[in-house]
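I am writing to request your help with a piece of structural work I have in hand. What I wish to show you is a protein chain and, alongside it, a tokenised description of its three-dimensional fold. Could you please explain, in whatever detail you think fit, how the structure tokens follow from the sequence? You will find the record immediately after this paragraph.
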Amino acid sequence: MKKLLFLMVLLLVLAWVLIGCSGSPKTADQYIPDGNYIMQESEEPSKPTVSLKDGNRFTFTYSLLSSYYAVGSYEIDDGNLILKTDDGEYKYVFKIKDNTLIFNAKESSEIPSYANVPDGAVFKEI
């Protein structure tokens, strides 16, 4: 009887340990804190900005000349921040590296020619 009870407790503890270890911690490229990320190299009066908010919401402003207000939800997948607008029209992809965002123009929707956000543009948190 004691042997059976010991084995049951041992199995319960082992299962508890395995469940506790199953969640892998987020690495730096799987997490980016909420905040405002500004394109550093821009010479525009109002620099392009990505704002990440609670509830995986975002805004992305890339030019004062644009009447479009990019707002929607975001997700993180394989070290990439993926912004998808609520209207389903646009997607913008950024590589996450050391708490900065690096714009990936090839994977993103086209940005208007009057907005100067080149591939590889670096956005840093302010």
